Amino acid sequence: MNRATSGVDELTRVELFGFDFVDDVSIEPIADIIVGSRPDQVAFPPVVVTPNTDLLLQLFSDSDDRLRTFFSNAWCVLPDGQPIVWASRLLKAPLRFRLTGSDLFAHLWPRLVDAGAPVFVLAPNDAVSDGLRAGHPQAVTIVAPMIDQSDDAGLATLASDCVAQIVATEARVAVLSLGHPKDSMIASLIIEQLAATPERIPFVLCVGGSAEMYLGLRKRAPMWVQRCSAEWLYRFAQEPRRLFHRYFVRDIGFIPLVWREHRARRRGAASTR
Q1: In what order do the strands lie in the sheet with 203-206?
Q2: 3-state secondary structure of 109
């Protein structure tokens, strides 16, 4: 089992599917670091990504490996999907707990508000922008225009707008709330544009719809459902037409992905004997 503790941030990580997943029983240590540390003292790039089963499959099915590399280099890779935790146990590299972007945002945002920390938010709509700024006047937001993920020029322009606000406000945290893959693509461009001045790079959180859940704009499963590892079923019950293909057709591909990981680990173990 590949389990290691970083001397920089004291977080324990488990290598799985080529990513170093954070292994903990709580999201609190990550929130503590973000609130109490300078990003450039922790990692480069100081990015948080939250892959679930579906997102992992997208990363491995894409012939362009740039996003997969971006995830591999991220400071914090959170095991956002319960099947990832179950698979880790089958693969004898057990993760102790599911750590979600929604939980991180819910723990972190009130602390950023209380600290009056300068924060930048790339919001998907006015409701998120207005809702977050209502509780945190120091937050600066941009509402993203309708933009296709294949529009490289448009994404680059949007990233430049984000960088301008991050630099102007000296933001310590940047929250990207558009979902995958746009969050990761824009985060990568932000890091690239600020690479020459790493002290200006904030913690960049690619947390998709977490802000909408925090504000109550999108329903999240009750805590007892989360504890039963049935949050996916709760979401399916809310949007069965949209999610049927994802959960019952596309995500079945996670099984061969786990099998390939198992075979790769066996080959790796055999080569070290």
Answers
A1: 3-5, 12-16, 19-22, 76-77, 47-49, 203-206, 173-176, 119-123, 140-143
A2: helix
**Cα distance between the two ends of the chain:** 15
In this structure, what token pair is assigned to residue 14? 């488990």
Contacts 24+ apart (CB under 8 A), 215-218: 215/127, 215/128, 215/131, 215/132, 217/127, 217/128, 217/131
Question: Using 50, 70 and 90 to split pLDDT, how confident is the model at 270?
Answer: low
The residues, any chain, with a CB within 8 Å of residue 180's CB and separated by 6 or more, are: 55, 58, 206, 208
Provide the β-strand partners of residue 205.
48, 175
User: Which token pair is 196?
Assistant: 């020459």
Q: Angle, to 10 degrees, between the axis of helix 28-36 and the axis of helix 101-115?
A: 40
pLDDT of residue 241: 80
pTM: predicted TM-score of the whole model, two decimal places: 0.91
* Cα 170 off chain centre by: 22
Integer Cα distance of 187 and 182 in angstroms: 8
- How buried is 10 (Cβ within 10 angstroms: 0-12 exposed, 13-18 middle, 19+ buried)? exposed
